[in-house]
Amino acid sequence: VMEEVMEDLDDFAEALAMSEEDTQTLKKRGRVALSNLLQRGEISEQKAVVESVEDYKASGRIFLKRQT
Questions:
Q1: What separation in angstroms does the CA of 22 have from each of 7, 10, 25, 31, 34?
Q2: Confidence (pTM)
Q3: Which of 1, 5, 30, 40 has the most CB within a 10 Å radius?
Q4: What is the DSSP code (8-state) at residue 53?
Q5: 27 falls in which pLDDT band (50, 70, 90)?
């Protein structure tokens, strides 16, 4: 889950209308904070919730496993 959060920081910054400099600062601090939490054992490595988008279809805000 944390991996997805880190990947979506650009969209988050865009929604807040942050400057490019502030966006880069946010991303850097996010990476440092995540690394720090992992190193201290505060959180553990987490498996991605959706590993392959091709295996799922979207229905509104809900991802449904495709019937094969």
A1: 16, 11, 5, 14, 18
A2: 0.58
A3: 30
A4: G
A5: very high
